[in-house]
Amino acid sequence: MSKIIVVTSGKGGVGKTTTSASIATGLALKGHKTVVIDFDVGLRNLDLIMNCERRVVYDFVNVINGESTLNQALIKDKHSDKLFILPASQTRDKDALTKEGVGKVLDELATNFEYIVCDSPAGIEHGALMALYFADEAIVVTNPEVSSVRDSDRILGILSSKSKRAELGQDPVKEHLILTRYNPVRVSKGEMLSVKDVEEILSIPLLGVIPESQSVLTASNQGVPVIHEEESDAGHAYRDAVGRLLGEEIPHRFIEQSRKGFFQRMFGA
Amino acid sequence: MSQANADLLDATCLQIKGALTPLTTFELYYYDETRFLEAVEEKIAQAPKLFENLPIVLSLEKFEGNGPEDEVQPVSETTALESLDFGLIKRQCAGLRLQLVAVRGARGVVAKNAKAAGLAVMTSQRSLAEATRIPAPDVEPVIEDKRLQPVFRPPTNETIVAPQLAPENDQQQSGAESEEPKTQAEPAEEAVPRNMIVTNPVRSGQQIYAKGGDLIVTAAVSAGAELLADGNIHVYGALRGRALAGVKGNQAARIFCHSLEAELVSIAGQYRISEDLQKTEWQKSCQIYLADGKMKIQALS
Tell me: the pLDDT tens digits for A87-116? Predict the structure, then answer.
């Protein structure tokens, strides 16, 4: 059985595409055949983060319109032969995504892939609705900041009322929370919402906390999903999250302020 | 009105108050003099007390024009609408001790005809909904005060409305209730529960309306969510959104919550916003009710 996972947030710029790329890569590294679809038609980014922008010939909209086959549009990842990318069109608009068209493509992918990761555009408009409509599970990406939490709450409401599962009265979409750009130091100063605050407001299970890290930006610019970075806390955090997504019990890290080293304590840094 | 309010208003002869007045609506599908009379008589026979001197709104939103007999010579919807004799309908209603007061969903010539017959013309629910591009479900607060506009938005398509419920004939213990015209005419089995229980968190942007009864939420209500109930509202979790109890004017309605963090609470049109709420029982378990027309917030336990 293949699983459709939507990565969504409501708010823009919180790390949806970064999370999609890393989660999809993580699933593939664990040996699961995975495809990641960019639903952000008109503002495609996923191919940049996955460093395959130079290999895009056909895209998602071409496949929906029958202008190319699925196999012509799928791009194989450079790092893992279990991972494929279905890029978005940069020239069309989001109305090109129809429920029937998207459903047909997902059905076809389902015969061949274990996991289908849908990278949702920001907002609650058509593109975002199409990305979440067919989802079995949802990863809600949130920053520890009030407006992001509010938008995530809104998206959770939409998931529970407008997804296919909600419409057909099936089991609800399984919800996961990923808190990105988390900085325990700023939390302790009261400048940022804590994990507990966010969990209390959204009341959904926590899949992972991704610490604020320079390596995320660097990795994006280099076109390497941050999960590949062995040295990076964010990379480790994503690897933990993938493990939890697959049902492993892994304690949460990066929530507490790391204990200060000897020199830091000496000099009060 | 309480004594205190009356003193304050010594100088003025009237005060504009927000009031939601429930009105019974007859939804007309087609008009035929005898059939109309028969249909109304039949309805009245089912609940004679309910209908006595009841103000009625005639809705033309679902008007199709042709009855079953018109199949031979169908007329267009417009022709049928324009040929409606509102004076006659009004007299027919009066004969049955009903007061036709207004027409809803009338436009152009039809609206003019209605006005000529001495009827008020009310904004169509449909056109209101079209204006906001949101299909409006069967929710019908009549807003008479601009002040209340932000409080009662036309329900969005995410609104969850309680299923069609039994008529309200024993609503609450309020004495004032007897003057209130009843809204639902169809008699139904007494046993149908009128309360609504929601077990999932109510998210930002969601609106839940418990029509004809209480609304019970056993989870948190997020900021940006809206709860509406004709009766009481219970929230067994944090209430961070808006809660409006007694939206049809039931002054005895109350709001109960585990943690008061609401953006707004309202009972029978009287409301308080978050800023004013912070002074009392904020983030505490409490109940909110009207005493002598004034909103009271009282800690629970």
Answer: 998 888 778 899 999 999 999 999 999 999
Distance from first CA to last CA of chain A, Å, rounded?
A: 52
Contact residues on chain B for A157, CB-CB shorter than 8 A: 158, 202-206, 222, 225
| Closest by CA position to B88, among listed B31, B43, B39 | B31
What interface predicted TM-score (ipTM) does this complex get? 0.78
8 Å CB contact between A187 and A231:
no
- Going through B199-292 in order, the beta strands assigned E by DSSP cover 207-210, 215-217, 226-229, 233-239, 242-245, 255-260, 264-267, 270-273, 286-291
Token digits of residue A139: 């990863």
- pLDDT on residue B130: 45
A126 close contact with B: CB closer than 8 A: no
A109 contact B CB<8A = no
DSSP run (H or E) holding B59:
strand B54-59
A8 vs B contacts (CB less than 8 Å): none
Question: pLDDT per residue over B253-290, tens digit each?
Answer: 999 999 999 999 999 999 999 989 998 899 999 999 99
At residue B284, the pLDDT reads: 94
**pTM of this structure:** 0.65
Residues in chain B within 8 Å Cβ distance of A162: 158
Tell whether A156 is within 8 A of chain B (Cβ).
yes
Q: Of A9, A51, A5, which is closest to residue A145 (Cα–Cα)?
A: A9
- The sheet with strand B120-122 has its strands ordered as B24-27, B54-59, B98-104, B120-122
Residues 6+ apart with CB under 8 A from B214: B194, B195, B196, B229, B231, B232, B233, B234
User: What phi and psi, each to the nearest 5 degrees, are found at residue A218?
Assistant: -60, -45
Return contacts of A231-240, CB within 8 angstroms, 24+ apart: A234/A210, A235/A22, A237/A208, A237/A209, A237/A210, A237/A211, A238/A19, A238/A22, A238/A23, A238/A26, A238/A208, A238/A210, A239/A26, A240/A208
Least confident of A42-51, A194-203, A250-259: A250-259
Residues of chain A above pLDDT 70, percent = 96
Task: Give the separation between CA B189 and CA B166, rounded to whole angstroms.
Answer: 7
Give the phi and the psi of residue B65 in degrees, each rounded to 5. 105, -50
> B238-259 burial, b for 16+ CB within 10 Å, e for fewer?
bbbbbbbbbbbbbbbbbbbbbb
Interface residue A162 vs chain B (CB under 8 A): yes
Which residues of chain A have a CB within 8 Å of the CB of B201?
A: 156, 203
Confidence of residue B39 (pLDDT cuts 50, 70, 90): confident
**Closest residue in chain B to residue A167, using alpha carbons only:** B158
Which chain B residue has the Cα nearest residue A150? B204
In this predicted structure, what is the pLDDT of residue B244? 96
Q: Give residue B162's pLDDT.
A: 59
- What is the Cα–Cα distance from B245 to B91, expressed in whole angstroms? 37
Taking the Cβ of residue B158 and every Cβ of chain A, the question of whether any pair is shorter than 8 Å is answered with: yes
Contacts of B292 (CB under 8 A, 6+ apart): B2
Which run of H or E residues covers position B160?
strand B160-161
